[in-house]
Every structure is written in C-alpha cells, then in structure tokens.
Write a structure and sequence with these properties.
It is built from one helix and five strands. With about 80 residues, it is α+β, with helices and mostly antiparallel strands.
Length: about 80
C-alpha cells in the first residue's frame, strides 16, 4: 500500500510502500497524534524506517497499491 506524508514547511512529500494494512497504519498515526508518541514511525517494504515528528505532519494519505498493467492489450 502507498503512504504519502506531507510535512510542514517542506515542498516535497514523503512517499513509501508498506506491507501493513490500512488499519495498522491508521492506528500508528492516531497513536502518534494522540500525544502518547511524539514521533510518527513507519516501516516500508524494504525494512527502512521513516520517522517524522508528529507535530510537523501536515497530512497523511493512505492509498491502495495500484497494479501496473504490462503488455499491449486493449483491456
């Protein structure tokens, strides 16, 4: 699944692919925003960690991974 994180005062967004379910990611985001955690920490498919201060997050977009079509078929 694709996750996009917008960070305040930064022109580019952080984009990562995660193997977690949307519900797991949403619970991690809610935990970081609730004040119990000061950092939003997510792990991508390759095991790399992305750590963002929760008070600097402008938005988080959670989307399903799009399957790319291969070939010349007109489907």
């Amino acid at each position: 699944m694709e996750i996009k994180i917008g960070v305040q005062h930064t022109p580019r967004e952080i984009v990562l692919e995660s193997g977690q379910s949307p519900e797991e990611v949403e619970s991690q985001i809610a935990e970081a925003f609730s004040g119990s955690g000061k950092l939003l920490t997510l792990v991508d498919e390759r095991g790399r960690k992305v750590i963002v201060p929760a008070d600097r997050v402008a938005y988080v977009e959670i989307g399903e991974q799009v399957q790319r079509r291969v070939g010349f078929g007109a489907l």
